[in-house]
Write a structure and sequence with these properties.
heterodimer; A: alpha/beta; Glutaredoxin; Rossmann fold; 5 domains; five-stranded mixed beta sheet; four-stranded mixed beta sheet; 26 helices; 13 strands; 39% helix; globular; B: alpha+beta; Ubiquitin-like (UB roll); N-terminal domain of TfIIb; three-stranded antiparallel beta sheet; 7 helices
Chain lengths: 655, 286
């Protein structure tokens, strides 16, 4: 491959950010100064190309440090990894969290998605913007769902700077344990704010720079959001994840029983509360028996597609091609979903253990945790948990002294809903644009790096632990015959106690909303998020099972239950959903790329119309929606019209 | 003497196409079988020299048991499959896809598209006058070829031809996302600042005329481009010893465009800058 580079050079800061990830360059072929030896042989080639998967971490490294990715930085990264600059440019422009042009080092993402809009995000945006004023050094961006729906309206501050390891905001006792949380408290004071103003970053001088810092502000008011944006390191701590679990402490919980009772940063506490008994049992019974247990338990995927987990594991385990990979899909971006975030923040060791079991059962020795880029605390918690497990021999060459090797690598997403699609996620990890692949071949046969791969959602994996500790029979006894086990529901919107609820499959929608304290004047309930569908307030007896929702002509999806009262105009909600799909379409196939645009345009036209005035556009929507559902490559396009269709047909929107 | 490689004989598999039993060699796609059976399935992003990308979705057909429609260009035929090419469902999706494309992209130089729009009764105008379009100015940044992305349907063929499927130059990529996605070189700069080697193999595969010879672009602008008056002469390139076939498109005794036969075992339609663009000396009559 004969690469062509422009004349742009990286600044010292950009170079340092890339080198911190990849190590110093070995020769001028990789971007170092030229030496005589370089004229004698060329290094890199295949070896460098095999590191293509480090492109996304490299882009993150530059963006984390500088706040945006310059031509010189991108070129340098391409030299280091032997990637054509055009391809790297295509990858970098794919993700919403990266900027290829100069921008202030602090970006304030304000969620304008359904739950947050209902909680006043529009006003928040305008007030924050006017409060900050020009020259504030903060860029305000309207963001799709940040996964903080239980504390709407939500805002996320990301300030670029030298890598400061993210602090554990709500844990006073994280200090002596070391690991990523043990940041010296005085490390980011004083000098940080003074140098923050330079928006271009990287003047090449050495010395103290602003520290990278993130802050979550939810529920946000204009004042707290502005304060967090101007000084994220001194922002008030986030409430502990337990606050998102109204049932916390209830002894009957299966998946959430450690919430609020176990310190999520303490491996010993995790073990004292039942941790690692499932993995011990897995080693005792062997991989084939683990798969049998999972199959017998009737576990199906919790990410939305409800595919039988045991069958997926069996299909991967039986592939002769090696190596096998395990991928945990934690790119939770479905509007209204936040269960995986709460699980990772509140019980991170459970996911580490569950991934180890899944890998053991399917013969994988390397696991990837693809974690949403908008989840700083979940990332910090998982990094800490993985480091702890590694230090204690629960990950590594010899897990639990059983001679089985397994390790987990975290890969951060960068703002792309489509990367939650399983094959798009593979492309994203591999350093390509996060576009879905054609199926067949399916991931169990050709997945990550073209190898057999099992990919599971966070909640799915966490369910494996009770299956092994309780036994398949006892687990299958929970829930209904066709939907077994406990299920997490993300309840938000017009309820008194929003949060994650754990209920056995089969509870009705009304029971769940009753638990959450649904308010009067309920107008509609959105099940399954933007890709799901609306139901009416008189349909609260729908059983929350896969078969029950299917029978009722709707979907359970990822477990989103969003309640809307009559203060929110329905056409506005639908327009927001359509905007979401337009923004998040990857652009690969025509029905979705152009169809989502035409859908948004039509909904925009009829936002204030009804009856006969809207009829022509509704016909148009139906025709476009049908083609999107039938002819799109992946689930994004296929479901982009679901919510709108259900609102028209079930709720009588525009009548 | 030309030796045509025959390869290992392939088994035939049997399946049903529009109710009729058909036999197709193992590994062939539904589209191959349709074409062998004389059925006309529209295609845009499919290329005879490239791996199917199935991005345009205009070739979708209905397969019994499949939840969604499947792209004929990339789905391999399987024994016992029941494929229907002309159902209302498949025709509806094709119609809408054509409407979506025609309402957002300039398809005036796309072969056969007018015929399909008529056949499927597509009405691109029904999205209204304010429907978003790809409003891009033609990019004329070199003397050899023009990129007119207002005509681009994002079929990925140029990217594949420039990348690992043929040229290995990797000068272009898809950049951006969704409706804002465009074909671009790094930092969306001019072609002259990129890794482009001007082989023109991207022009060879472009299905819409978004990529065209500068000569063709200028003649179209002047209104003198007339394919009916053109002759095509296939000859052998004289620059080196590889022996690539060139097809010279001649109008009014002037070479206006050079292509290469896609079934040629040497080129598969690909050429280098000299074969593709180095024809001026032929016309130098002094």
């Amino acid at each position: 491959m004969d690469l062509h580079f422009g004349d742009s050079k990286p600044t010292d800061d950009e170079r340092a950010a890339v080198d911190a990830l990849l190590g110093p360059p070995e020769s001028s072929w990789e971007g170092a100064d030229r030496s005589d030896a370089d004229l004698r042989w060329a290094r890199g080639g295949r070896e460098a190309r095999d590191r293509r998967d480090l492109l996304l971490p490299g882009l993150h490294a530059v963006n984390d440090r500088i706040g945006w990715i310059s031509e010189g930085a991108l070129d340098y990264l391409c030299r280091r990894l032997t990637i054509p600059p055009a391809e790297a440019y295509g990858v970098a422009t794919f993700y919403a969290m990266f900027s290829l042009g100069p921008r202030p080092s602090t970006v304030l993402h304000i969620c304008t998605d359904l739950a947050c809009t209902a909680a006043g995000a529009t006003r928040l945006c305008t007030e924050v913007e006017s409060g900050l004023g020009p020259g504030s050094g903060v860029q305000v961006e309207r963001s799709p769902c940040l996964g903080l729906c239980e504390r709407a309206p939500a805002a996320l501050v990301i300030r670029a700077g030298e890598t400061a390891r993210p602090a554990f905001e709500d844990e006073a006792r994280s200090g002596p344990k070391g690991g990523p949380g043990a940041q010296p408290p005085g490390d980011d004071g004083g000098t940080s704010r003074s140098s923050e103003a330079e928006s271009g970053g990287g003047k090449g001088r050495r010395g103290r720079k602003a520290q990278r810092s993130t802050a979550v502000c939810a529920p946000a008011t204009p004042d707290t959001a502005i304060q967090a944006a101007t000084a994220p390191e001194t922002a008030p701590p986030e409430p502990p994840p337990t606050t998102a679990v109204p049932q916390a402490g209830t002894p009957t919980l299966t998946l959430l029983h450690r919430m609020g009772t176990t310190d999520p940063t303490d491996l010993d506490d995790y073990r004292a509360n039942g941790g690692y008994t499932a993995l011990r049992r897995a080693f005792a019974i062997g991989p084939a028996a683990v798969i049998r247990e999972v199959t017998d338990a009737g576990l199906v995927g919790r990410g939305g597609a409800a595919f039988p987990t045991g069958r997926k594991w069996q299909a991967t385990a039986s592939q002769p091609d090696h190596p096998h990979y395990l991928v945990c899909n934690a790119d939770e971006s479905e509007p209204g979903t936040f269960k995986d975030r709460v699980l990772m923040e509140g019980d991170p060791f459970a996911l580490v253990e569950a991934m180890t079991i899944a890998a053991y059962a399917t013969g994988a020795h390397h696991g990837y945790l693809y974690l949403r880029g908008e989840y700083p605390r979940a990332t910090a918690r998982m990094e800490h948990a993985i480091a702890q497990a590694r230090a204690r021999g629960l990950l590594g060459d010899d897990v639990l002294g059983q001679g089985y090797a397994f390790d987990i690598e975290i890969r951060r997403g960068a703002g792309a809903y489509i990367c939650g699609e399983e094959t798009a996620l593979f492309n994203s990890i591999e350093g390509y644009r996060g576009e879905p692949r054609t199926k067949p071949p399916f991931p169990v046969e050709k997945g990550l790096f073209g190898k057999p791969t099992v990919e599971n959602n966070v909640e799915t994996l966490v369910n494996v632990l009770p299956i092994l500790t309780m036994g398949a029979q006892a687990y299958a006894a929970i829930g209904t015959e066709k939907s077994t086990g406990p299920k997490l529901f993300c309840v938000s919107g017009s309820v008194a106690r929003p949060g994650i609820y754990e209920l056995p499959f089969g509870a009705t929608l009304g029971e769940l909303l009753g638990l959450a304290g649904v308010r009067d004047n309920l107008r509609a309930v959105l099940l399954g998020g933007a890709a799901g569908g609306f139901v009416r307030p008189d349909e609260l007896d729908i059983p929350l099972t896969f078969e029950g929702t299917r029978e009722a002509g709707t979907t359970l999806g990822s477990g989103v239950v969003m309640a809307f009262d009559d203060t929110v105009p329905l056409p506005r909600l639908l327009l927001r959903i359509a905007q979401f799909f337009r923004d998040e379409s990857c652009g690969q196939c025509v029905p979705c790329r152009v169809g989502t645009v035409r859908q948004e345009e039509a909904l925009h036209r009829i936002v204030d119309r009804a009856g006969a005035d809207a009829r022509a556009d509704i016909t148009l929507l139906r025709e476009v929606g049908r083609a999107m559902r039938d002819a799109s490559i992946c689930g994004l396009g296929q479901t982009a019209w679901n919510a709108v269709e259900s609102a028209i047909d079930r709720l009588g929107a525009y009548e | 003497m030309t030796v045509t490689p025959l390869g290992i004989p392939r088994r035939l598999l049997e399946f049903t196409l529009d109710g009729d039993p058909v036999r197709a060699p193992e590994g062939s796609t539904i589209l191959d079988a349709c074409r062998a059976a004389g059925k006309d399935v529209p295609t845009l992003c499919e290329g005879d020299t490239l791996t199917p990308k199935n991005a345009c979705r205009v070739c979708v057909v209905e397969v019994e048991g499949s939840r969604t429609l499947v792209p004929a260009c990339s789905r391999r035929a399987e024994p016992g499959m029941d494929v229907r090419t002309g159902t209302e469902r498949a025709r509806h999706s094709r119609k809408v896809v054509l409407e979506l494309l025609a309402s957002s992209v300039d398809l005036s130089t796309t072969p056969r598209v007018a015929e399909w729009l008529k056949e499927y009764e597509a009405k691109p105008d029904r999205f209204g006058p304010d429907a978003a379009r790809l409003d891009e100015e033609p990019r004329v940044d070199n003397d050899l070829y023009v990129r007119d992305y207002a005509k681009c349907i994002l079929c990925y063929k140029c990217v594949d031809a420039c990348g690992d499927q043929w040229q290995n130059s990797f000068a272009i990529s898809v950049a951006g996302r969704g409706f804002d996605a465009r074909i671009a070189v790094e930092h969306d700069g001019p072609l002259t600042d990129s890794a482009c080697v001007y082989c023109g193999n991207c022009i060879e595969v472009c299905p819409t005329g978004a990529l065209s010879f500068k000569s063709e672009f200028d003649m179209r602008a002047a209104g003198t481009w007339d394919e009916a008056r053109q002759t095509e002469t296939t000859t052998v390139c004289a620059y080196c010893g590889v022996g690539c076939n060139l097809t010279l498109h001649v109008q009014d005794n002037e070479i206006v465009k050079v292509t290469s036969p896609h079934d040629n075992p040497v080129t598969h339609g690909n050429l280098c800058i000299k074969g593709r663009f180095g024809y001026q000396h032929v016309q130098n009559r002094d």
